[in-house]
Every structure is written in structure tokens, then in C-alpha cells.
Design a protein that fits this description.
Structural class: alpha/beta
Radius of gyration: 22 Å
CATH topology: TIM Barrel
Shape: globular
Oligomer: single chain
Number of domains: 1
Helix content: 25-40%
Largest sheet: 8 strands, parallel, barrel
CATH superfamily: Luciferase-like domain
Strand content: 5-15%
Number of helices: 15
Number of strands: 14
Length: 445
């Protein structure tokens, strides 16, 4: 029996996210990203479809590797303009009761004390429905924006992140006792001072402070992470409760999942990225794909992938092999088309893979075909669910909810109602970090 499939919408507070160029489609509404009603309507749609959450990506720089500048990214709306994702969450939470919110924030550029307060605030405002996608950054443009000459080296960024996590664990888990808040009107004591304490930072994060927020439903938000490099997987196995993978084949993803599960001591859910184009029939879905492809942007896809890998594809001829020289960018993306690829990748082969403006090949078909494909990923790659990239908004999600969700429910692999409780309770059956998790050790510091 296939386990129950988990679903997140994968989105970003911007016009163009993963499938580049589709903002040009006449029915696409992503240009409304700066309108709160766009996001609150989306949240209500996702909750109606019983999605587990919306996963909000973010970056802190511009994609300026292709051609040595940002022009291609700017021209094609490749994640620019880009607004803060965290500010969307209270509005979406106000119109929903169960939908979870995973938000991407970097450990490299913000002091943990400030970040911990913002996440605790979100956990309180959402009644425990917030998760944190932990990233260390990979853009030189982001480092320059923060006043650095270049990025911190890849593996060193993860070393910093280990210290960062151990510091915020102390703030979230150790600074306040569960029963510190008395709110006693008669005595006049709101909080018992004996049950609130200073905690110290770890490693490079020298800090001596009390957390400013009272205990929230989850204390520590649900922890997501998307690193697929060797160092990234080590970090994920240590900290992440939910891991987000992208992969071109089920055997490749299955190997990554097996490695992660072998290293992880606490419960783990694995999500794989997927793009779905669904119609009422297979032929209708193929027609829709053909329509969508008219708007896909090769230049936009190259701008994104150049920044992700640190490779300027404008310097390569069409049939040049993609070089495998190390960069400080996303190492798993470089490896996917070089050292870990089954065959030689060239610029031409890369462009040929950009079906809808990215390397993520879509699942195309009627409800039965799409359900078969999703279930096959769960069975053959041992993933728990999917982060569904948007194509034409909001019709891609409306179609998925109307056509695919009932088919998955009919097969008994998707829920028919939400469970009660905070996000971690819904995903794992408990609201707090489990005792086997590294962060739980902070409770006795």
C-alpha cells in the first residue's frame, strides 16, 4: 500500500519562479504578486484542495552570471522583481485554518537573535503552522549586497549554519520554560522571572540574550532543507525534518533518499519537485502543454541555471561539454550535469531539456496518468510528497485540485480531511521537536 502523499505548492513572491516565460501567457496572473488578495485567494484555494502547505522560496541576489550581468534575468523576470515572502504569511494565515507555510530564510546574513524572534512571531500568529526552509545562499550578488567581496566558501557556509541552528535552538527551546507565562491578574505577575533565562550563542554567533517571545505552539518551526550536495545532505540529516530534492530520475532520487534516511536519527519526510500539466484527458493535457510551450523562455532558463551553477553559458558553444570546475554556487546542480550525469551534457542538450522554461520536465496527462506518475515516484524513490511548481497561475492549481486530488483520494493515497494541531503535529503526530532531534538537546542547556 502506498503511503499518504503530501503536497506543497512551490511558489515565490515574484513574477517568474521556476518555469520561466510563462508569465507571458494571457491567462497567467503572477503579475499580481504584489496584491495581498492574490495570495489570500491562493491560500484559500490550497486549503480547499487539502494541500499540506505552501513552500515559499527566496533568494537575496540577482542572477547575474549569464553574459556577465543581470540583463537576461531582468528582461525575463527571472525571480526579479522579488519581494519578501515572510510578509505574506500572516495574511494567508488569516483566511485559512490548516494550511502550512514553509518560508525560505538564509543563515548567512542575519543575526540569529533577530531571526528567531521573527519566526516565533510567525509561529504564534499562525497558531503553529510555520516552517523554515534553511538555506545558506549561493549567489555572489547576494554576498556583494551584504557588503562582502565574495561568498563564504560552500562547505564553510554549512559550518556556519550548524552554529546558527544550535544558537536558535537555544533561543526557541531553552530560554523560556513551558509554564513561564502566568498572566495572573490578581497577583500582578505576567511572567515568572525565574522561568526565563539568558542563553549563549554557539561558535561564531557570540550572543548572551533572553528570547523575546513567549513559547509558541511549536517553539521551533518545522525545519525544511534542500541541500543535495554531500555537505548539504550531512546538514539535512542533522537538522531537517522535511527535505526537498530535485532529480531527473527515480533511481537518482532513491539513492539520495536512502542516504538521507540512513544518516537521520529523527523522523524525516522527503519532498521531490514536480511540475504537472493536467487535462481531463491525456490528449487535452498534451494540447495544453503545446500551448504553454509557446511562452517558455530559453534565455530566462539559462539565466537561472547559470546563476545556480556559477557557469556562464554565454561563453559556451552549443556542443561544448559543460565544465565541471568547482564553484561556490549550487554544487548539486553542477554535479547533475557533469560528474554525476549518465552522459555528456552540452549547452544544446541543456537547452533541449528546457520544456517549460526549466530543467524540470513536466508530468503531462489526464488525472489517471498524473496519479500513476506521482504514485510511482512514491513507490520507486521512497519520497513522501511533492513540491508542485507553478506553470500558469492560478489555473495550474485549480486544475490539479479539480482533477488530480479526487483521483488520488479515490485510490486512498491522499487525505480527505485535515488532521488537527500545528503543522508538525499534522506531518509527524507531535507538535514539538522529537527527543532524537539535535535541537531537542537545547532544552537542557
Amino acid at each position: 500500500m502506498t503511503k499518504e502523499i503530501l503536497l506543497n505548492a512551490f511558489d515565490m513572491n515574484t513574477v517568474g519562479h521556476i518555469q520561466h516565460g510563462l508569465w507571458r501567457h494571457p491567462r497567467d496572473q503572477s503579475h499580481r504578486y504584489a496584491e495581498l488578495s492574490y495570495w489570500t485567494d491562493l491560500a484559500k484555494t490550497l486549503e480547499r484542495g487539502l494541500f499540506d502547505g505552501i513552500f515559499l522560496a527566496d533568494v537575496l541576489g540577482v542572477y547575474d552570471v549569464l553574459g556577465g550581468g543581470p540583463e537576461a534575468a531582468i528582461r525575463n523576470a527571472v525571480q526579479i522583481p522579488l519581494a519578501d515572502p515572510m510578509l505574506l504569511i500572516p495574511a494567508m494565515a488569516s483566511v485559512t485554518e490548516h494550511l502550512g507555510f514553509g518560508v525560505t530564510c538564509t543563515t548567512t546574513y542575519e543575526p540569529p537573535f533577530l531571526f528567531a524572534r521573527r519566526m516565533s512571531t510567525l509561529d504564534a500568529l499562525t497558531k503553529g503552522r510555520v516552517g523554515w526552509n534553511i538555506v545558506t545562499g549561493y549567489l555572489d550578488s547576494a554576498a556583494r549586497a551584504m557588503g562582502l567581496a565574495t561568498q563564504v566558501p560552500h562547505d564553510e557556509r554549512y559550518d556556519w549554519a550548524d552554529d546558527y541552528l544550535d544558537t536558535v535552538y537555544r533561543l526557541w527551546e531553552a530560554s523560556w520554560d513551558d509554564d513561564a507565562v502566568l498572566a495572573d491578574r490578581n497577583v500582578g505577575f505576567y511572567t515568572d522571572p525565574a522561568k526565563v533565562r539568558r542563553v549563549q550563542g554557539v561558535g561564531r554567533y557570540m550572543m548572551d540574550a533572553m528570547h523575546l517571545c513567549a513559547p509558541t505552539p511549536q517553539r521551533t518551526p518545522v525545519l525544511y532543507q534542500a541541500g543535495a550536495s554531500t555537505r548539504g545532505r550531512q546538514f539535512a540529516a542533522t537538522h531537517a525534518e522535511c527535505v526537498f530534492l530535485n532529480g531527473t530520475s527515480k533511481p537518482q532520487v532513491a539513492a539520495l533518499v536512502a542516504d538521507l534516511r540512513a544518516q537521520t536519527l529523527h523522523p524525516l519526510k522527503v519532498f521531490v519537485g514536480a511540475t504537472v500539466v493536467v487535462g481531463r484527458t491525456d490528449s487535452e493535457a498534451v494540447e495544453k502543454l503545446t500551448e504553454y510551450r509557446q511562452f517558455a523562455s530559453v534565455e530566462g532558463a539559462l539565466a537561472h541555471f547559470s546563476a545556480s551553477t556559477g557557469i556562464d553559458f554565454a561563453k559556451l558553444d552549443m556542443d561544448d561539454p559543460i565544465p565541471s570546475a568547482p564553484t561556490q554556487s549550487n554544487q548539486s546542480n553542477v554535479e547533475a550535469v557533469t560528474t554525476k550525469a549518465a552522459s555528456v551534457w552540452t549547452k544544446r542538450k541543456l537547452i533541449d531539456s528546457f520544456i517549460l522554461g526549466s530543467r524540470q520536465a513536466p508530468i503531462v496527462g489526464g488525472p489517471e496518468t498524473v496519479a500513476d506518475a506521482l504514485i510511482a515516484w512514491v513507490q520507486e524513490a521512497d519520497v513522501d510528497g511533492f513540491n508542485l511548481s507553478r506553470t500558469v497561475m492560478p489555473e495550474c492549481l485549480d486544475d490539479f485540485i479539480a482533477l488530480v486530488v479526487p483521483e488520488l483520494q479515490k485510490r486512498g493515497v491522499f487525505k480527505t480531511a485535515y488532521r488537527d494541531g500545528p503543522l508538525r503535529q499534522k506531518l509527524f503526530g507531535h507538535p514539538r521537536l522529537p527527543s532524537a532531534h539535535r535541537g531537542a538537546a537545547a532544552r537542557i542547556v
